């Protein structure tokens, strides 16, 4: 199929799809007037019944904790896929560098960038953990905090060099942390079954709403997810940096 | 104006799809997949929004205050994190394709396969 035929085919089907969109969206409530019984119930029970002041976290890790388990494992398998795909095999042909602009060198990192990255490093790690452990109180949780935490190795790369990143974030250690985070979710769920409850049923005392210890199991699940997300993102970063370093050497 | 966010979601989807179909570079194609995905964010948040309602965080507002839909926000937040790793996976595939075939143009890849 040539490009022109393909584009014409796209235009016809896109018009049909746009019509379907119009038809479907016309049945939705007007913007700003959304109403859902489920949302009303969650907003009403998240503090009195679940002792979690962040209703979003209540949905993710308490009310529909099982779905989040599935979402977490999409992340886990994607990271696994990246690592497998980027692994170097012996028979692999060396990269073809013909498309690179000749005589164009990568400029060295400026001192200003190094200093700012160094200054931001410690606050980023503290802020990341703060977001992870306050998930049940204020906006945040394992997913958001984990992403913030994983920007720390990137800052380290900016202010130092790749060997330093490898020294501080040894891939073996990060792999273990990521696996522990992912396994922790299942272990917590399994422990509930062992204690006579249902999978991921919140059996721990719920505590006082608005405090760090509220939400029963939710802070522990958040901790696991935080480890998993930050570990996964760091591994992806390390794998890509490794690729970059090998290209520079060759 | 009250249906504008839905129109934006549809437009993002279609424009991303156009990018995927007309792409001459796999990296560009992967970014277009990301654009398609962001249409789902706009749609979800638009469905959950309520005019004048607060964020569903009941730390400094009493329970019972009108708040926006927390369910769609919960869906979104996991979606965003998962999307980034999926994009990383697709980019890793693109790197492998470039290593083995020396091109990132989908049309040329088809020729190689015969």
SSE blueprint and pairings:
The complex is a heterodimer of chains A (250) and B (114).
Chain A: H1 3-26, H2 37-45, H3 55-63, H4 65-86, H5 111-133, H6 142-159, H7 162-168, H8 171-194, H9 218-249
Helix pairs in contact in A: 3-4, 4-8, 4-9, 5-6, 6-7, 6-9, 8-9
Chain B: H1 4-22, H2 26-48, H3 70-101, H4 106-113
Overview of the molecule:
The complex is a heterodimer of chains A (250) and B (114). By secondary structure, chain A is mainly α. Helix content of chain A is 67%, strand content 0%. The mean pLDDT of chain A is 87. Chain B has 114 residues and is mainly alpha-helical. Chain B has one domain: Orthogonal Bundle (Helix Hairpins). Chain B has 4 helices and no strands. The longest helix of chain B has 32 residues, at 70-101. The mean pLDDT of chain B is 89. Classes of the chains: A mainly alpha (250), B mainly alpha (114). Chains A and B meet through α1, α2, α3, α4 and α6 of A and α1, α2 and α3 of B.
Elements of chain A, N to C (H/E): HHHHHHHHH
Give the proportion of residues in helices of chain B.
over 70%
Roughly what is the average pLDDT of chain A, rounded to an integer?
Answer: 87
Spatial shape of chain A = globular
Quick structural gist:
Chain A is mainly α and 250 residues long. In chain A, 67% of the residues lie in helices and 0% in strands.
Search tags:
heterodimer; A: 250 residues; 67% helix; B: 114 residues; mainly alpha; Helix Hairpins; 4 helices; 72% helix
